[in-house]
Amino acid sequence: MAISSALFCAILLVFVFNILSTYKTNYLKAIGREQEILVNSVSRDISKILSETATYTPSGITSAENSAVENVIKKAEVSGSRYWIFGSTDRIIFIENDDFTKNFYGMTFEELLHQYKLNGGVGIQSFSTLISNKSNGTVQFSKSELSAVSLASIRFFTVGDKTYILSACTSSDYLLRMGDVYKNINYIAMSAIILCFAVMVITICFSLAVYRRNNTITQKDREIKNKNILIEKLVQKNDSDNAELISDELTGVYNKTFCDKLLAKIDSNNILNVGIVLI
User: Which residue, 23, 37, 6, is CA-closest to 187?
Assistant: First the structure.
């Protein structure tokens, strides 16, 4: 029974943790879809500014792009856990803040992702695949081995004959905390662990009770067997003693004691017409 309980607890914990992992993944997917809506909205605002201010000369396009950065991206929904990456297919125009932009300005997205990969970032291949295929979507990645994983939603859009890329990146850990996902996961996980602990305690207590009961039954059975043996010995001894009382030890012939008992039994039962033959 203890083995069955342990197996049950192991299966339950595996099942629960798989469900929690799926819950976490599905939550981030749902947030990713909401973030894609935000990126789509911001990309429309950028497209509007680029269309209205660009003069389709290199300097005019650059001026329009800078205007989009100042009037749209820097005013978009940001926080310590969310930042934006904006650029065209051939260069990065803005990333996170002015200081980061100075370091990466003019670099292509492929070069940026390659730098992240060299720094030990994870999920870079998924990000790179979207960029290479010019596909909209959401991926998880980190910029380096030590940085937190971010949920990045990417949007491609075209203004004139130029294709732009806009990405909103939000810390996955921040999203999970704000959505009480960690809290819910901890609550469910602790409930499952407590349940397993309770099952094991009940199993141990029940096993001990069964063991004690079986031990008591074994002791009683042993006592009964010993008493039966003693009774058999007493019966044998009593039969032997009775035989010695009513018969002659040497010849085995019934003695006077037997005859007296027999006559007393006959007399008490009022048996008449009794004959006695003496040899």
Answer: 23
